Amino acid sequence: MKIKNVELETVCGITSVLPDNELPEIAFAGKSNVGKSSLINALMNRKALARTSQKPGKTQTINFYNINQELYLVDLPGYGYAKVAEAEKRKWGQLIERYLHGSKQLKALFLLIDIRHEPGTNDKVMYNFIVEMGYKPIIIATKLDKLKRSQVAKHLKQIKVGLDLLPETILIPFSATSKQGREEIWDFVDKHVLG
Ligand code: GDP
């Protein structure tokens, strides 16, 4: 995928009407601070279009980035930020749910997990929720550069076991620092979404 043009086209909050897009959509979900903004910026070759924040969980919206007038990259709200009240968390959950239920164009759903840590309860709930809705999520193991090479296999296994991944689930290790995994993600999109 050659990025020619990127535009943040639609920003949706909890009360917004979600757009009825005609182009295919690919969406990214993950816990706050997992590295979602960094991944999205890396995919789009932009330094800071998606927010990378020191205050995780602050602004909660679904952002639709139009890429090359070919597809939408959909940035879902980060979940699981501890300092947020339960009622707020529920609202974001509902927004994500409304999008997953309602989108007619969602072709690929990526769930991000920090490669260093065992998946948490929130991650498991999200993964199971996505699977139960009939999607086959692609797992992206973020912050790959934070591990020694010798630790990687063990940590990928930890994610597989922790989420109880279906055997055919695709798992892509990624680093926003080295950009490792970036091509693999776009290759997947080229083949399965645009192909
Ligand atoms: P978000 O809350 O999921 O959008 O996470 P961010 O993209 O804002 O990243 C959270 C923190 O992790 C920031 O300090 C990033 O610089 C850092 N980070 C994200 N991805 C990577 C990565 O691949 N490698 C390293 N070393 N740090 C990362």
From TrEMBL:
Superkingdom of the organism of origin: Bacteria
Cofactor(s) it depends on: Mg(2+)
Domain spans labelled EngB-type G: 22-195
Keywords noted in UniProt: Cell cycle, Cell division, GTP-binding, Magnesium, Metal-binding, Nucleotide-binding, Septation
Keyword field contains GTP-binding: yes
Record-linked InterPro entries: G_ENGB_dom, GTP-bd, GTP-bd_ribosome_bio_YsxC, P-loop_NTPase
Coiled coil regions in record: none
UniProt function note: Necessary for normal cell division and for the maintenance of normal septation.
Family stated for the protein in its record: Belongs to the TRAFAC class TrmE-Era-EngA-EngB-Septin-like GTPase superfamily. EngB GTPase family.
HAMAP family xrefs: GTPase_EngB
Protein's name according to its UniProt entry: Probable GTP-binding protein EngB
Lineage: Bacteria, Bacillati, Bacillota, Clostridia, Lachnospirales
Gene responsible for this protein: yihA
